[in-house]
């Protein structure tokens, strides 16, 4: 899910270095732009940086402090645009909105902070807006196009895994439910159902567990069993 | 793919794109791709008081997954055609 901005400090090479990319997962460097300031939310601009646009994320690295850098995945960028109106921001820039996981209870607090010029402690995960200000404004249109291309490389993942999670937890709930019923008193009826449904180790383990429970009760539950058989 | 085809037909028309964060942007639809990412030109934010930073923006790229609604030009919709197409799509044809 959207995780917003994060710190980025993994650099390679000499001098201020370059960002370490995840080559093994096919991450490619698409564009480099030197002389770019970054503005996070309504914080003051941080200048003297270089942006690296990869097939997956935008990374800004400070040219002065090799420990300072930020990154945001294209997954988390809801919107990007070229901003040229000096009334909105003194310098032409790339403006981006960042999708963050809203924390309902803290929302008011963070909005209060954003309305003022914010110099408090930096909480990257709450930053909703980012501006990238190149010292050469003629690069803006090119940057915008690269942003577009890379955003298109990052469509929403198909939620296969999430689906599996759902099925799995539903199974588990069902199995738990059966077990509970079992311990109450219902014996052979549910038992058959459980075997009928079983697929995979998890269910098998549940079945064995239930068998054991049933065995214990078997000795002093003749009447119950007969009742149950009667219902079948 | 149905809505991708549909949106391609109304490129050049004015639409209002409403995002899941309640921001609504009016603009000329410049392009759309298969993920329903949307590029707008001549944009105006509908509620400028609430989103002053967006006032300066004249063109923008909106990630398809953050779009809640797209308000269409009333005469840009052939309802019969769209009905038929959605039925065909539902049948998997």
TrEMBL record, chain A:
Compartments reported by the entry: Cytoplasm; Nucleus
Gene3D superfamilies given in the database record: Pleckstrin-homology domain (PH domain)/Phosphotyrosine-binding domain (PTB)
Record key words, sorted: Cytoplasm, Nucleus
GO cellular component terms attached to this protein's record: cytosol; methylosome; pICln-Sm protein complex; plasma membrane; spliceosomal complex
InterPro entries: ICln, ICln/Lot5/Saf5, PH-like_dom_sf
Superkingdom, natural source: Eukaryota
Biological process, per Gene Ontology: cell volume homeostasis; chloride transport; mRNA cis splicing, via spliceosome; spliceosomal snRNP assembly
Family: Belongs to the pICln (TC 1.A.47) family.
PANTHER family: CHLORIDE CONDUCTANCE REGULATORY PROTEIN ICLN (PTHR21399), METHYLOSOME SUBUNIT PICLN (PTHR21399:SF0)
UniProt name for this protein: Chloride conductance regulatory protein ICln
Organism: Nepenthes gracilis (Slender pitcher plant)
TrEMBL record, chain B:
Keyword field: mRNA processing, mRNA splicing, Nucleus, Ribonucleoprotein, RNA-binding, Spliceosome
Organism domain of life: Eukaryota
GO MF annotation: an example: RNA binding
One GO-annotated biological process of the protein: mRNA splicing, via spliceosome
SMART domains in UniProt: Sm
Localization: Nucleus
UniProt keyword annotation of Transcription present: no
InterPro entries per the UniProt record, alphabetical: LSM_dom_sf, Sm, Sm_dom_euk/arc, U6_snRNA_Lsm2
GO CC terms of this entry: catalytic step 2 spliceosome; Lsm1-7-Pat1 complex; P-body; precatalytic spliceosome; U4/U6 x U5 tri-snRNP complex; U6 snRNP
PANTHER family per the UniProt record, alphabetical: SM-LIKE PROTEIN LSM2, SNRNP CORE PROTEIN FAMILY MEMBER
Family to which this protein belongs: Belongs to the snRNP Sm proteins family.
Name by which UniProt lists this protein: Sm-like protein LSM2
Protein source organism: Nepenthes gracilis (Slender pitcher plant)
Upper classification of the organism: Eukaryota, Viridiplantae, Streptophyta, Embryophyta, Tracheophyta
């Amino acid at each position: 899910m959207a995780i917003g901005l994060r710190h980025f400090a993994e650099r390679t090479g000499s001098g201020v270095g370059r960002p370490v990319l995840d080559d093994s997962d096919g991450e490619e460097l698409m564009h480099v732009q030197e002389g770019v300031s970054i503005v996070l939310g309504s914080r003051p601009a941080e200048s003297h940086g270089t942006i690296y646009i990869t097939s997956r994320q935008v990374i800004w690295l400070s040219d002065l402090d090799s420990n300072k850098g930020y990154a945001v995945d294209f997954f988390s960028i809801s919107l990007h645009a070229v901003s040229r109106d000096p009334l909105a921001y003194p310098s032409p820039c790339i403006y981006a909105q960042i999708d963050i996981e809203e924390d309902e209870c803290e929302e008011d607090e963070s909005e209060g902070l954003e309305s003022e010029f914010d110099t408090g402690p930096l909480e990257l995960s709450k930053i909703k807006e980012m501006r990238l200000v190149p010292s050469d404004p003629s690069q803006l249109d090119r940057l915008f196009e690269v942003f577009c291309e890379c955003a298109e490389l990052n469509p929403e993942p198909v939620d296969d895994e999430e689906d599996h999670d759902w099925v799995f937890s539903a199974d588990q709930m069902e199995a738990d439910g059966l077990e509970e019923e079992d311990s109450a008193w219902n014996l052979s009826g549910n038992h058959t159902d459980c075997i009928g449904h079983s697929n995979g180790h998890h269910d098998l383990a549940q079945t064995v567990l239930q068998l054991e429970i049933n065995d214990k009760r078997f000795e002093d539950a003749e009447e119950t069993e007969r009742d149950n058989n009667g219902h079948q | 793919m149905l809505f991708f085809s549909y949106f391609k037909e109304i490129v050049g028309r004015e639409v209002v794109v409403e995002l899941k964060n309640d921001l609504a942007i009016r603009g000329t639809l410049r392009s759309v791709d298969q993920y329903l990412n949307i590029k707008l030109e001549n944009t105006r934010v509908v509620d400028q008081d609430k989103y002053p930073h967006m006032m300066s923006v004249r063109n923008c790229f909106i990630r398809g997954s953050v779009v809640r609604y797209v308000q269409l030009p009333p005469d840009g919709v052939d309802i019969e055609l769209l009905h038929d197409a959605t039925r065909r799509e539902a049948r998997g044809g």
